[in-house]
Amino acid sequence: MRLMPSWGAAAAVAVVAIAAAALGGCAGMGDGVGSLMVDPARYAGYHCKDLVGEWTSLTAQEKRLRELINKANEGGAAGTVVGAVAYRSDYETVLERQKIVQRAAAQQNCALKPVYSSDSTIR
After folding, report:
1. pLDDT beyond 50 at 107
2. pLDDT for the residue 120
3. 3-state SS of the chain: helix, strand, coil percent to 5?
């Protein structure tokens, strides 16, 4: 009995490619999944110092998730699907939380980036 591995492999690649395209298309829609999971009033009671701390934490999370997605994408079509399934919703949620922190900071006239103050003068 002779199996046709090329058909099986080709079908698997086609399914993965279609799934990746479908999931990739979801990322570009509206505000994304992240906006559904974030309460817009979440940061209403935060003070500037708290907003800066939250911004710093969210920026680190966003960077870590972006690196994980990029690493998964290096695995070809299957890696793209894994990256989309495993990390994309968390990534979208972090991006949405960043937007809400930015809005809260703007309402309170807060600078989200910690102000650097040197202990020495430049000569």
Report:
1. yes
2. 47
3. 70, 0, 30
Full-model pTM: 0.61
Q: How far is Cα 32 from Cα 79, in angstroms, rounded to an integer? A: 21
Tokens coding 104: 């809260």
* Closest to 94 in 3D by CA, of 38, 47, 39, 41: 38
The separation between CA 20 and the C-alpha centre of its own chain, rounded to angstroms, equals 17
Spatial distance between the Cα atoms of 98 and 75, rounded to a whole number of angstroms:
29
Selection from 55, 62, 80 nearest residue 70 by Cα: 80
Other beta carbons within 10 angstroms of residue 12's beta carbon come to: 12
Give dist(CA 19, CA 60) in Å, integer: 29
